[in-house]
Amino acid sequence: MPKSKNTFSSWRGRLVQRAVHAGWAWVQRTGSVTAERPGRFRFGALGVHTRLAFPLGTVFGEPWIHVGSHCIVGEQVTLTAGLMPDLDLGPEPILRIGDGVVLGRGSHVIADTTVTIGSDCYFGPYVYVTSTNHSYDDPHEPIGKQWPRMEPVAIGPGCWIGTGAVILPGARIGRNVVVAAGAVVRGVVPDHAVVAGAPARVVRRWTAEDGWQPPLRTPAPVPIPEGATAEQLNALAGLDEETAAKLAELDEDAAGRLAGLD
């Protein structure tokens, strides 16, 4: 038999749910870390319009962490400088993050020695960057008790680091490099390269002489026309597939006139 609906309980449940969601949104806003509201953290530098989302991951050694402006650090991101908290690491920063960097949710940047991330780098979720690796030289000693190896890590500006990628000690990644999801990177990666695999290898590269080799399989995306308004873009987004295909067949100027973007 159908169950009778308890209108009062349903109404009360929705009210409680809304209150919980509103409360959590308030906690996220209030708990986020910015230069104006750093909370208990004392970063060596924290740029304007940079925000560390709440809840944070593990953060320590922040006096030796320099973060640029206009950065977005996602929830549960770990940022550490030094092997453990409360160490004196000297006068120079250990972890440097440039301007406009995005660190995806759950990522880790472990800087026991120098780690540098260039400006305008975008990290997917759960990326792991470390300057330290376990050693296993002594076959009779547990690996976790052996002194680790440390090498500086440098990631050039403009890179895209895919979900779940691992950047190992000693990695030197050039500018505008794509690191595929799940790749494990060590050693030197040249500028304008795409790397994939474990260990990662170069699968595509751009040079001024030869362009992209192997050639790209898909055409480059068409940038949004200058001066396009939000209303015009919304109207374009609502086009059906047939109309959009017809517009794509037209030359650029005609497409712009039909879309009202000239």
Automatic annotation (TrEMBL):
Keywords: Acyltransferase, Repeat, Transferase. Pfam families: Hexapep. CDD domains: LbH_MAT_like. PROSITE patterns: HEXAPEP_TRANSFERASES (PS00101). GO terms for molecular function: acyltransferase activity. It comes from the Bacteria. InterPro entries: Hexapep, Hexapep_transf_CS, Hexapeptide_acetyltransf, Trimer_LpxA-like_sf. Its EC number is 2.3.1.-. Belongs to the transferase hexapeptide repeat family. This is Acyltransferase.
